[in-house]
Design goal:
The protein is mostly beta strands. The protein contains 5 helices and 25 strands. Pfam families: Pectinesterase.
C-alpha cells in the first residue's frame, strides 16, 4: 500500500492572478464564473501565496482530477450548493493504472488546506472492474481541515500521509476496504462512517510510526453499514498502527466479538487499538476490545492528537 507520488500534468495556458488580486476565485462548469474547472482556479493561485485564497465552486458535477501543489498553501475549496452532495468533484481512476496518489480525485500536497460543503468522490467500481485502490482524496499537506464534506469511494477512500495532521468534522465518509488510512494524525469528530459493501471490510488501516504517539481518533461519530456483524474497525497497515474510537455509536454492522484484525503480517494485538465509552449494538466489552481508562482517555482527545509541536487546535 506504499503510496506512489504521481502528479498529473497541470493545465497549461492559465495566467496566474496578480499578487494584489481578490482572494476569492469562482468556478462554474456552465461558464457563469471565471473558471470552468477547479484545477484551472488552482493553477491561477500564485505560487508561494502567504494568505488564504478561497475557491468557490458552483453546485454541479466536476469530473476532473485536481492537484494542489505544495507551493500553494492556504487554499479553501468551498461548494456553493445547498448541501455537500450538491457540489461533486469526481473521477474514476484506479491505482492499477494511475498509481496510488495518481488515482486520487483530489491530491492535496499543500499545507493549510480547507475543504467545506462539497463531495470528493472516486466512482471506480471495484466490484465491476476488479479490486484496486481508487482514492477520492489524498491529504499530504499538514494542518488540513474538512468540514461538512462527503468523501466517497470503494477501496482506500481517504489517505492521510506524509505525517500530515487533519481535522475532519460533521462529515460523511464511505468505502469498502481500508477507507481511512495512512501514517498521519487525524481526528474525525461528529462524522458518519459507512461500510457500503454487504460482505463488510475494514474501516481503518493505520500506518502510524512507532515513534508517533497519535494516529486516528474517531470521536463522537456514528458507524453504520450495509450488513450486520461484518465490519472491522480496522487493521494495522504498520505494526504500530494507532486508532482510538471513543464515545461513538457503533451499529450492528461492527463485528462484535473481534472488531480488529491482522494485516500483512502485522498483528492487531500488537497495534495500538483502543476504545472508550462507545455505545450501540456493535459496542461491547471483551478481551478483544482494549478499553482506555478514564485517566488514559485524558491523553486521547482531539487537542492531543493535533497539537504537534506548534500547538495547532482547529477543534477549538
Amino acid at each position: 500500500m506504499t503510496p506512489l507520488v504521481v502528479v498529473p500534468a497541470l493545465l497549461l495556458g492559465v495566467a496566474a492572478i496578480p499578487a494584489r488580486a481578490a482572494t476569492t476565485l469562482t468556478v462554474a462548469a456552465d461558464g457563469s464564473a471565471t473558471y470552468r474547472t477547479v484545477q484551472a482556479a488552482v493553477n491561477a493561485v500564485p505560487a508561494g501565496n502567504t494568505s488564504r485564497v478561497t475557491i468557490t465552486v458552483k453546485a454541479g458535477t466536476y469530473r476532473e482530477s485536481v492537484v494542489i501543489p505544495a507551493d500553494k498553501p492556504y487554499i479553501t475549496l468551498e461548494g456553493l450548493g445547498s448541501s455537500a452532495a450538491a457540489t461533486v468533484i469526481v473521477n474514476n481512476k484506479p491505482a492499477s493504472t494511475a498509481g496510488t496518489t495518481g488515482s486520487a480525485t483530489v491530491y492535496v500536497q499543500a499545507k493549510e488546506f480547507y475543504g467545506k460543503n462539497l463531495t470528493f468522490s472516486n466512482d471506480y467500481d471495484e466490484a465491476a472492474n476488479g479490486s484496486s485502490q481508487a482514492l477520492a482524496l489524498a491529504l499530504y499537506g499538514d494542518r488540513a481541515r474538512l468540514g461538512n464534506v462527503r468523501v466517497t469511494a470503494d477501496q482506500d477512500t481517504l489517505l492521510i500521509y506524509n505525517s500530515a495532521r487533519a481535522y475532519v468534522w460533521s462529515s460523511y465518509i464511505e468505502g469498502t476496504v481500508d477507507f481511512i488510512y495512512g501514517n498521519g494524525s487525524a481526528v474525525f469528530h461528529a462524522c458518519k462512517i459507512y461500510e457500503k459493501r454487504s460482505t463488510g471490510g475494514y474501516l481503518t488501516a493505520a500506518n502510524t510510526p512507532a515513534s508517533q504517539t497519535y494516529g486516528f481518533l474517531i470521536y463522537k461519530s456514528t458507524f453504520t453499514g450495509a450488513t450486520d456483524n461484518v465490519t472491522y474497525l480496522g487493521r494495522p497497515w504498520g505494526a504500530a498502527g494507532q486508532v482510538t474510537v471513543r464515545e461513538s455509536n457503533l451499529s450492528a454492522t461492527i463485528k462484535v466479538a473481534q472488531p480488529w484484525t491482522d494485516m500483512s503480517g502485522n498483528s492487531w494485538k500488537n497495534a495500538r487499538f483502543y476504545e472508550y465509552r462507545n455505545t450501540g449494538a456493535g459496542a461491547t466489552l471483551n478481551s478483544n476490545r482494549a478499553q482506555l481508562t478514564d485517566a488514559q482517555a485524558a491523553n486521547y482527545t482531539p487537542q492531543k492528537y493535533l497539537a504537534g509541536t506548534d500547538g495547532w487546535n482547529p477543534a477549538g
